[in-house]
């Protein structure tokens, strides 16, 4: 690491940061509706986004700064195993194609703002909806924290934030955070939607330049991979195992496949994905997006190559998360380092804003309105959600400042396992009403319990706890804990559904009809724009 | 709000829909069968097979999803036209 502050890079970084700040505040005027004082406007951007805005929003949402730092960092640390991110992002789009248009339709018809709204309406169970809302909020908080960790990594390498007392050290992060909180509060989902354009443009430029420029400087991919192969073959003197492998070995293939599949299933059930999907203006907007979003997967694959380049370039960092920022600083001229770091920094702001909005919507709709103030008006809901988004971000900030970074990473990993446990109620519920609501709740609890316990019990590469793969019972291969817990969840749901139906347990009221799941904007009986009053009102009024 | 009669819009599995389903299923077979691509050769501009093969599947799966999209949309339009008659 070079000593001191990299002035040119810092200036470029600050320039871009100021530009998106201005955009963030102006965004509140973008596509503004007549009556903007409700959750549909603040929390879903008026459900008005077309194919391209949705594409940028989802891209900005799912491919976060943390992804850009963590995927190459995983490759840098262990080789092939980290590349599962590519099949993972390939597999999630056929899944999205199958179930999210149905969620969009039923949510549009009934004015649902969150996925828990849907579960409550479908199964007539506030308890089940609360369980899913809490899962979503718990899984999102550490994710927001990780975005702040991403900004911190960039600031570290830039040489700012290294002051002697804690206040000066964290001041840059606090400023970035304050700005983020302010424009999210005033502009809602429109702010990240607009900033996502800048973020994605910067990211694409940086990746394309990096993937061409760095290999030329390092003597081509042949040389990069032979260096990486040598580095991975070196055995760790403590464990006697090699550092990694260029190709998944036979004993690692189950892990590779189950991690890809399990992560793909979870990705679009995160509250921030659902928020972005529901903000689009039609079901075919989502389908079209499954055909253009893979462009980001390709970019992710190229990005993963940077992990090998960091090895070939002889980057040595204690904290693997710093490998890529360090590679950029060593390889690029100062001004372009600034552009690259701005890309990572802004890449953290967009998802952090969407995640905090999504978590705030969950809190407002499925905890506050369902349990505390059932008579909350739409404008009161919007106010609560704005405040909740602030609280969620402060929570994430405290998380980052007071706890070790590995805590955030551990929780984010647990978050993936937890989100997978919402699949039976949510995705199952989109296709069938056969499952019993109490069985779904029991299955969720079983999956959550098993997944958390197993993850805690499994040592990871660097610590004694929170590994993500362990032996799958009955199969005897190592696989993703989240997927094993999901299988247990489904078994419990099916067995208990049979039992509860035999006992004639009350089934709850389903307020949706079969036609709701295929309805599109512009169909007879479906409004293009929802008047605010219908948001949250029971259907049929 | 008047609801269309129950079952009036029930999805019937037609040949195009089956093909669309197949298009969506193929990437799962290809990607989850890790053993089929867990090797280093042949390399492409120095990138081992393992990596370029999986990246090649990004455009392939995109193409398959596009085919599925066209088929499903055609089906939906035909159904809507049928309803309005």
UniProtKB/TrEMBL annotation, chain A:
Topology in membrane: Multi-pass membrane protein
- Residues covered by region (Disordered): 515-541
User: Would I find DNA-binding among this entry's keywords?
Assistant: no
First-listed, main subcellular location of the protein, grouped into a coarse class? membrane
Transmembrane regions: 6-28, 49-69, 75-100, 130-154, 166-185, 197-216, 254-271, 292-315, 335-363, 409-431, 480-500
The record's listing under Pfam families reads:
SSF
Q: Where in the cell is it found?
A: Membrane
Q: Which InterPro entries does this entry report, sorted A to Z?
A: Na/Glc_symporter_sf, Na/solute_symporter, Sodium:Solute_Symporter
Q: Does the keyword Cell inner membrane apply?
A: no
Signal peptide (residue range): none
The record's family statement is:
Belongs to the sodium:solute symporter (SSF) (TC 2.A.21) family.
Could you identify this protein by its name? Permease
Look up and give the organism this protein is from: Streptomyces hiroshimensis
From TrEMBL, chain B:
**Keywords for the protein's UniProt record, in alphabetical order:** Membrane, Transmembrane, Transmembrane helix
State the name under which the record lists this protein: Membrane protein
Q: Which residues cross the membrane?
A: 12-34, 54-72
| Keyword hit for Chloroplast | no
> Could you confirm whether the keyword Membrane appears in this record?
yes
């Amino acid at each position: 690491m070079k000593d001191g502050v990299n002035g040119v890079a810092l200036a470029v970084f600050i320039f871009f940061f100021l530009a998106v700040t201005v955009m963030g505040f102006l965004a509140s005027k973008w596509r503004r509706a007549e009556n903007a004082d409700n959750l549909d406007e603040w929390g879903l951007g008026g459900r008005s986004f077309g194919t391209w805005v949705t594409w940028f929003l989802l891209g900005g949402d799912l491919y976060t700064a943390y992804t850009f730092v963590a995927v190459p960092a995983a490759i840098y640390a262990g080789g092939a195993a980290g590349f599962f991110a590519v099949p993972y992002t390939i597999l999630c789009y056929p899944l999205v194609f199958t179930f999210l248009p149905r969620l969009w339709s039923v949510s549009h018809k009934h004015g649902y703002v969150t996925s828990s709204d849907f579960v409550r309406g479908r199964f007539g169970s506030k308890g089940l909806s609360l369980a899913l809302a809490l899962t979503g909020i718990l899984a999102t908080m550490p994710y927001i924290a990780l975005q702040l960790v991403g900004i911190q990594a960039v600031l570290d390498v830039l040489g700012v934030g290294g002051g002697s007392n804690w206040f000066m050290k964290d001041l840059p992060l606090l400023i970035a955070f304050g700005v983020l909180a302010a424009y999210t509060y005033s502009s809602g989902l429109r702010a990240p939607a607009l900033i996502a354009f800048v973020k994605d443009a910067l990211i694409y430029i940086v990746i394309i330049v990096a993937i061409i420029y760095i290999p030329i400087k390092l003597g081509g991919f042949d040389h990069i991979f032979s260096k990486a192969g040598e580095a991975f073959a070196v055995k760790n003197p403590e464990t006697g195992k090699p550092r990694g492998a260029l190709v998944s070995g036979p004993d690692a293939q189950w892990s590779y496949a189950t991690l890809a599949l399990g992560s793909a299933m979870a990705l679009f059930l995160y509250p921030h994905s659902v928020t972005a999907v529901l903000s689009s203006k039609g079901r075919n907007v989502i389908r079209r997006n499954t055909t253009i979003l893979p462009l980001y997967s390709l970019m992710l694959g190229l990005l993963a190559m940077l992990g090998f380049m960091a090895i070939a370039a002889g980057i040595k960092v204690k904290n693997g998360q710093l490998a890529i920022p360090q590679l950029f600083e060593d390889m690029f001229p100062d001004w372009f380092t600034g552009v690259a770091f701005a890309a990572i920094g802004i890449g953290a702001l967009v998802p952090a804003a969407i995640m905090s909005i999504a978590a705030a919507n969950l809190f407002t709709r499925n905890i506050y309105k369902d349990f505390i103030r059932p008579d909350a008006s739409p404008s009161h809901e919007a106010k609560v959600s704005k405040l909740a988004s602030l609280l969620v971000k402060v929570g994430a900030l405290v998380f980052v400042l007071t706890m070790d970074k590995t805590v955030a990473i551990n929780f984010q990993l647990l978050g993936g396992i937890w989100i997978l446990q919402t699949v039976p109620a949510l995705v199952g519920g989109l296709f069938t009403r056969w499952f019993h609501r109490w069985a779904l709740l029991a299955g969720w609890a079983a999956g959550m319990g098993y997944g958390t316990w197993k993850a805690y019990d499994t040592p990871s590469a660097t610590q004694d706890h929170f590994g993500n793969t362990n032996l799958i019972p009955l199969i005897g291969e190592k696989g993703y804990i989240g997927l094993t817990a999901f299988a247990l969840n489904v078994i419990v749901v099916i067995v208990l559904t049979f039992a509860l139906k035999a006992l004639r347990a009350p089934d709850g009221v389903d307020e949706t009809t079969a036609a709701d799941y295929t309805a599109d904007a512009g169909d007879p009986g479906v409004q293009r724009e929802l008047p605010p009053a219908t948001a949250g009102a029971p259907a049929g009024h | 709000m008047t609801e269309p009669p129950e079952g009036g819009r029930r999805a019937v599995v037609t040949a195009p829909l089956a093909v669309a389903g197949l298009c969506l299923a193929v990437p799962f077979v290809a990607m989850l069968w890790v053993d089929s691509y867990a090797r280093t050769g042949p390399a492409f501009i120095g990138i081992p097979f393992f990596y370029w093969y999986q990246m090649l599947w990004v455009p392939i799966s995109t193409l398959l999803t596009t085919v599925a999209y066209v088929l499903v949309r055609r089906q939906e339009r035909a159904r809507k036209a049928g309803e309005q008659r």
